[in-house]
Amino acid sequence: MRRLLLVLLLIAAPAFAVQPDEVLDDPALESRARDISAGLRCPVCRNESIDESNAGVARDLRLMVRERLVAGDSDAEVVDAVVARYGEYVLLAPDRTGVNLVLWLAPAALGLAGLVIALVAVRRRAAAPQEAPLDEDEQRRLDEILKS
């Protein structure tokens, strides 16, 4: 049972594309590199971090991140260098400022607008005048029509 659980956990673990020759000797720098590359999108793949991608450009980006860390750059400087080269598209979680703020707020605003429209429609329907019930003659005529 424990082996099965272990196998399931290994299958569910994220698959990293980092090659053994890319791994830094310093565990602290390697940890920082993994943290940075987990937040960077592969320019070729859709919504896949460079850590998970097997694309050549993702390998180049992983190597660039590690080279800059070895050179002494801070995490922010490394990310800024990658963004300067590839644009904000490479950020899996773009900044929440400027034009990007619209992208972050649009889903909530559209959801709220939909909720308001639904509430207005329900209230209008509830406030609409109700039709008077059928009188005896109309009910009898309707029953005759339905029988035939």
TrEMBL record:
Domain CcmH/CycL/Ccl2/NrfF N-terminal, chain residue ranges per copy: 5-146
Keyword vocabulary terms for this entry: Cytochrome c-type biogenesis, Heme, Iron, Membrane, Metal-binding, Signal, Transmembrane, Transmembrane helix
One MF annotation (Gene Ontology) recorded for this entry: metal ion binding
UniProt-listed Gene3D superfamilies: Cytochrome C biogenesis protein
Domain of life: Bacteria
GO cellular component terms, A-Z: plasma membrane
Any single Pfam family the record assigns to this protein: CcmH
Any single biological process term in GO: cytochrome complex assembly
Signal peptide: 1-17
Membrane-spanning residues: 101-122
PANTHER family named in the record: CYTOCHROME C-TYPE BIOGENESIS PROTEIN CCMH
Function according to Swiss-Prot or TrEMBL: Possible subunit of a heme lyase.
Family: Belongs to the CcmH/CycL/Ccl2/NrfF family.
Protein name: Cytochrome c-type biogenesis protein
Species whose genome carries this gene: Wenxinia marina DSM 24838
